[in-house]
């Protein structure tokens, strides 16, 4: 491993964040000089607002920016209010759907909430700032842009970029709109340098082509060396990108996913991923990480519990992490139903398939039917089988109906206005219909 002078690169290399750097020695020297002179280095992370929350897969570069700030440096969190109107072609085989300005504004607000869980925004020298690139693109003149920026780009080189080359090799259409994306991101980097003195872009490895577009434009147009630093794309032992759970994103924002489900994602990761996730998704010191990742056999479950708790505490706060851990303990160790389990209101003759979907234990009624047929569903810890199963008052045990899918997914069906579990937890947001009423209260009949 390279012996870095700067503390930031030493930490990132040790914790597994380092993938590639445009000029490793130069970036290290820049960071070290800032550390010695007690002034903040400035770097940025960009995200297009394609959704109203980040998910776990997005957190790797966010955690790099967290360490960047913890060491006294200044993060710039760039949201692509302009570039979202085009869509980054990186890793995509077709044009992204266009979004309305209202959707973009809504998603930007969600991204700000995601960032604020990990990054500090204030007026101190190392306080982060949110910047929207629509600020400088909204009034730009196309002819001026072609003259002032386009002249620095070689089409020959642009065609070698991975996002472009992959499309061409697969004979998949790439619009001129998407082809322009790397010019816009390169221009972002230069504008951030001019406005904030930003010298570094930090991102995932899929952004390498867009990053070098910016560093090259900085060298040619501004005669300054800008640095690009990327992290690896985290995958599990099967090669699947981390951040997805059975096809569903593991969202960061509270309204998109309960703290309990966030906790359970990390609690249920594979043994081989424990050390990797402890290094990336927690602030635990490396001595403790090394101790935990060395645990074997049944002891590895203790490491997973610590990982889940620390990751949840960082994202959702300590109170939520404690509640999630206690719910998991009651559910899996005592066989009781903890208060952070997803909950819905009871309706007599509620189809089991509908209840499983509303509790988000299955993604669809079709999936629910398949699992029931495979003996993968339980009512009150008893396996059920058959078609068109409905829940009735006779299924109530101790004032609730416990539904389970496999060994790790559980939810509760409770009487309308009934007593919640003893710890007083409320239903997770989104577990009931949007107007907050049960189907029975709203006069609707359940349909299978």
* Number of extended strands: 15
Rounded mean pLDDT is: 85
How does the helix and strand content classify structurally?
A: alpha/beta
Strand ordering within the main sheet: 1-6-5-2-3-4
**Helix content class:** 40-55%
Quickly give the CATH architecture of the largest domain. Answer: 3-Layer(aba) Sandwich
By CATH, the superfamily of the largest domain comes out as HUPs
Radius of gyration: 25 Å
Q: Sheet with the most strands? A: 6 strands, mixed
Spans of 5+ residues with little confidence (pLDDT < 50)? 419-448
Euclidean distance between termini CA atoms = 59 Å
Strand content: 5-15%
Number of domains: 3
Question: How would you describe the shape?
Answer: globular
User: What is the CATH C-level name of the largest domain?
Assistant: Alpha Beta
Number of helical segments with 4 or more residues: 18
The CATH topology annotation of the largest domain reads as: Rossmann fold
Structure description:
41% of the residues lie in helices and 12% in strands. It is α/β, with parallel strands linked by helices. It folds into 3 domains: 7-231, HUPs (Rossmann fold, 3-Layer(aba) Sandwich), CATH 3.40.50.620; 258-334, Tyrosyl-Transfer RNA Synthetase; 337-448, Roll (Structural Genomics Hypothetical 15.5 Kd Protein In mrcA-pckA Intergenic Region, Chain A), CATH 3.10.290. The strands form 4 sheets. It has a 6-stranded mixed sheet with strand order 1-6-5-2-3-4, sandwiched between helices. Strand 2, helix 3 and strand 3 (74-79) form a beta-alpha-beta unit. Helix 10 (181-196) packs across helix 11 (208-222), helix 13 (274-281) runs antiparallel to helix 14 and helix 15 (300-316) packs antiparallel against helix 16. The chain is globular. The model is unreliable at 419-448 (pLDDT under 50).
């Amino acid at each position: 491993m390279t012996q870095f002078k700067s503390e930031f690169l030493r930490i990132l290399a040790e914790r597994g964040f380092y993938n590639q750097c445009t000029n490793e020695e130069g970036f290290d020297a820049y960071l070290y000089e800032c550390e010695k002179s007690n002034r903040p280095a400035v770097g940025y992370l960009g995200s297009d607002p394609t959704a109203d929350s980040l998910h776990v897969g997005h957190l790797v570069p966010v955690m790099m920016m967290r360490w960047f700030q913890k060491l006294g440096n200044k993060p710039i969190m760039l949201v692509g209010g302009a570039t979202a109107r085009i869509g980054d072609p990186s890793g995509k085989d077709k044009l992204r759907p266009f979004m309305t300005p209202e959707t973009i504004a809504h998603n930007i607000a969600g991204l700000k909430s995601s960032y604020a869980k990990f990054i500090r925004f204030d007026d101190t020298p190392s306080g982060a700032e949110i910047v929207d690139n629509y600020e400088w693109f909204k009034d730009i003149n196309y002819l001026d842009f072609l003259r002032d920026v386009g002249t620095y780009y070689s089409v020959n080189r642009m065609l070698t970029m991975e996002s472009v080359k992959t499309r061409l090799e697969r004979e998949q259409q790439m619009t001129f709109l998407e082809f322009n994306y790397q010019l816009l991101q390169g221009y972002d980097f230069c504008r951030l340098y001019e406005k904030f003195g930003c010298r570094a872009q930090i991102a995932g490895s899929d952004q390498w082509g867009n990053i070098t577009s910016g560093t090259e434009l900085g060298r040619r147009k501004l005669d300054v060396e800008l640095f690009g630093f990327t992290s690896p794309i985290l995958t599990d032992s099967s090669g699947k990108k981390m951040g997805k759970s059975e096809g569903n994103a593991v969202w960061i924002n509270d309204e998109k996913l309960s703290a309990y489900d966030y906790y359970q994602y990390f609690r249920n990761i594979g043994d081989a991923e424990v050390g990797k996730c402890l290094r990336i998704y927690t602030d635990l010191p490396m001595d403790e990480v090394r101790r935990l990742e060395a645990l074997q056999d049944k002891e590895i479950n203790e490491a997973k519990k610590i990982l889940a708790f620390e990751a949840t505490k960082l994202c959702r706060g300590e109170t939520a992490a404690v509640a999630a851990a206690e719910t998991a303990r009651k559910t899996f160790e005592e066989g009781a139903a903890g208060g952070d389990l997803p909950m819905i209101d009871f309706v007599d003759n509620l189809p089991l398939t509908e209840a499983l979907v509303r509790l988000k234990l299955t993604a669809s009624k079709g999936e629910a039917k398949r699992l029931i047929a495979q003996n993968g569903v339980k009512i009150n810890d008893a396996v059920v089988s058959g078609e068109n199963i409905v829940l009735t008052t006779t299924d109530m045990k101790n004032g609730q109906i416990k539904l389970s899918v496999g060994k790790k997914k559980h939810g509760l069906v409770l009487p309308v206005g009934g007593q919640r579990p003893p710890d007083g937890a409320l239903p997770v947001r989104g577990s009931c219909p949007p107007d907050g009423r049960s189907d029975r209260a709203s006069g609707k009949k359940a349909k299978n």
